[in-house]
Amino acid sequence: MTAYAYLRKSVVHDPTRENSEAIQEAAVRAMAARHGDADTLVLLSDWDKSGRLGRSKRPGYDGLWKAIESGACTAVYSYSMSRLARSVSELTKLFETCAAQGIPVRLEADVVDTSTASGRMTAAILASVAAFEADVAGERMRAAMVAKSARGETLRTVPLYGDRPNHDVDAVLAAWHEAGSFNGTARLLNERRVPCRNSRRGWWPSSVARLIRRLDPSVGISTQGARPGPANYLLARLLRCGTCGTPLTGKRDRDGNVRYACRLAAGPHPRASVPEAAILPAIQEEVAHLRAPEAIETAGDDTERAELESRRARVIESFMDGTIDRADRDRRLAAISDALGRLETRSEVVAIPAVDWSQSSATLNGVLRALFERVDVDPETFQPRPDGYVWRVPEWRAD
């Protein structure tokens, strides 16, 4: 027959603080020795696990339950009630199961021993207190997140690329404009030894894609694996093939004229390319409908931004409670950051003056991609369809 001790802590950083692994283990071993269970004691633990989680997500806790249910456990030791669980129903279930099988539950910090009547009464009271403390802690965290958001402080737990002095965002964007693809950008960045977040791993196309889309929300996911053209072309990453939806790629011919072509034109395409000079007048005519910035209403932005910040706080709270893992947290926070980026892009566009067509192609391209999500072309003529202009904010277009 064997006595079992269960140790747990939600977040493990400072080993000297209360409830650390060393403190809990020393306490339960001393307690087991006082009751003659030191020689048979088996330690089970769950680190970086919330007490709100059930058996399936706490392997050590599940092992404790299996020992109890199989009859192999003669006593349960733990540092405190909150280490066992943060739910009144879960604690009640554990105590009732142990009581039915005559298994005492002994807790060091709470001075509980369910082998006595007073110990059982104390356990019932403390179970309610443990759940109350967990609820209060959650409320405090939510209030802290709201306060940080109101002060304009970041709620991120992991710094984004560009937050640290050694991050070179300009070099990343320069490589992207030069290469025109995520693979090519990663190769250039590694060749030029541009620092990344993880120096041991280096730049990968996936990490480049996440960074570029955060810095420039207008960069979408290229369909059919087609590579977007370099941004120094006037209409780069704007035009979409009317046949297959692939982004059209810019290229200069021998005479220096720019043409936009579909990279998948080997299939059944009525037409595969169009000169920039032939399509530019239609683009200019549509841009002429841009409403003056002072007339654009953006009052809804603050409400939408507040909702996104609230969602970010809830995601972080869920991660700290252990209800979502790190990968799920990062995926959700990335989506929220993208949405916030689109709001920032909207604000930037409001501040853009009238389009100056004498500016460089690269500068104008940034302005046009801030105005339009994409421009769909006709499959027969390769001219923009009248309904093919997808404005980032439809209200920006004046009839």
Topology diagram in text:
Layout lengths: L1 E8 L11 H14 L7 E6 L11 H12 L2 E6 L2 H4 L3 H13 L4 E3 L4 E2 L3 H34 L18 H11 L2 H10 L13 H11 L23 E2 L8 E4 L5 E4 L11 E3 H12 L12 H22 L4 H25 L10 H11 E6 L6 E8 L8
Parallel strand pairs: 1-2, 1-3, 3-4, 6-10
Antiparallel strand pairs: 4-5, 7-8, 8-9, 10-11
Helix pairs in contact: 4-5, 5-10, 6-7, 7-8, 8-11, 10-11
Overview of this structure, please?
The chain is α/β, with parallel strands linked by helices. It has 4 domains: 2-149, 3-Layer(aba) Sandwich (Rossmann fold), CATH 3.40.50.1390; 158-215, no CATH class; 228-290 and 354-399, no CATH class; 299-350. Helices cover 45% and strands 13% of the residues. The protein has 12 helices and 11 strands. The chain has a 5-stranded mixed sheet with strand order 2-1-3-4-5, with helices on both faces. Helix 1 links the parallel strand 1 and strand 2. The protein is elongated, with a radius of gyration of 30 Å. The N and C termini lie far apart (84 Å). The model is unreliable at 221-230 and 295-299 (pLDDT under 50).
